């Protein structure tokens, strides 16, 4: 990595400041919405005390969950690959002396032989990050904004000034969910006063303009958030990231768009965890460590002879695909061993041929 001069260092600092502008915008907008709804609408414009109490209680609950999940999405650091995926000094030196080609790949294959690596590049090579000088774990990608490799990277979100990945994807989903509920609740309870504004049923005070703009803002954000939240719900149900939806992961046997899908319920549990009491709270409960994931390889290796479906074929497939025998962490192993593991409605049991192991 080339050393950076004072000029490039200053530019990086300026970019870091600029990256916070979307977050500041959302924060200011949220602050104004609180003032417009809680003060101008509920306290100033609502005449029914019961309506005031109910609306304020429900509003503050949604507001608190919105802010909590947004905060966690912003300030939860993305997880990076563990030390075992970094090359040793001897391997780095050997890699630098080898030109790009088969010899270069042979060094990486030897370094990766004991790692739970199942995905490859489009050309079938080991996925290696020159910038971070490490072998990329499955579903890991390098973020050009953060300048780091991020575990199970989904995308870099400017609205949270953070990478959305394994460590904060659940928080991001809850942020979308609670922000959508927040906007829908405001639009629904503000609607009757918005109508009164156009029928001259409101007193001529500054509250009427807050009520009008509040409804417009809530309605617009509801439309955009509903489509974004729906899209990410679909991704979770299929156990895909945004990057994987645009480019399917490549395994040793070829491209497989459903390679990480274990069925709807298990895909949900991989993101939200086993304990449902934590599902709606922005508390980390995702399964695993982000470095490796259970897989269900739907497409078979064309060179592999067909075998009867079932768990008895697993050992043979592991040998044919040369997957390292690494045990799954306990938090994910039960996804593959419980009685319903091979009977999910969205997976054909006869096609599940191999599973990945977690460090």
Specify the helix fraction band.
Answer: 40-55%
What integer value in Å does the Rg equal?
Answer: 25 Å
Percentage of residues in DSSP E strands: 5-15%
The poorly predicted ranges are: 298-329, 339-359
Head-to-tail CA distance between termini:
29 Å
**Count of discrete alpha- or pi-helical segments spanning 4 or more residues:** 11
Profile the largest sheet: 3 strands, antiparallel
Tell me the strand order in the biggest sheet: 1-8-9
Shape verdict: elongated
Which class of secondary structure composition applies to the elements?
mainly alpha
> What's the quaternary structure here?
single chain
Mean pLDDT: 83
Number of extended strands: 9
Order of helices and strands: HHHHHEEEEEEEHHHEEHHH
Question: Can you describe this structure?
Answer:
By secondary structure, the protein is mainly alpha-helical. Among the domains are: 178 residues, no CATH class; 54 residues, no CATH class. Helices cover 50% and strands 6% of the residues. The protein contains 11 helices and 9 strands. The strands form 4 sheets. A 3-stranded antiparallel beta sheet has the order 1-8-9, with no helix packed on it. A two-stranded antiparallel ribbon has the order 2-3. Strand 2 and strand 3 form a beta hairpin. Helix 2 packs across helix 7, helix 3 packs antiparallel against helix 6 and helix 6 runs antiparallel to helix 7. The radius of gyration is 25 Å and the shape is elongated. The two termini are 29 Å apart. The C terminus is likely disordered.
